[in-house]
Amino acid sequence: MRTGAARGGVGHERRRHRRVPVSLAAELRLGPxxxxxxxxxxxxxxxxxxxxxxxxxLGAADGGEAALFAPTLGAVxxxxxxxxxxxxxxxxxxxxxxxxxLPRAAEAPVRERVARSE
Length: 118
Hints:
Layout: E1 20-30, E2 33-42, E3 46-51, E4 65-69, E5 78-88, E6 91-99, H1 104-116
Antiparallel strand pairs: 1-2, 1-4, 2-3, 3-6, 4-5, 5-6
């Protein structure tokens, strides 16, 4: 069950940047709360985060602001917006994130990862 409704109709792709599959350790922070997990895909505009374990009951509202930390992407906080959550019952299994601003230290590692997978 997906909690974020697709805008623009069925089958309409809203992304400006092509996603590439990855498997990168990451941490998502929403205020004082933190979740460990992995990025399952990445683009120049955002990423899909899969939280680990039972703590995956993210209370993040779509549109909420957060920070993403991924050691292989420059090890700096990347400001993100929660775009949608994919759930099974009450557990969040994936969170779609849009980069609000890609910090300079993260830009080259993100571009390199995306280019490597093309």
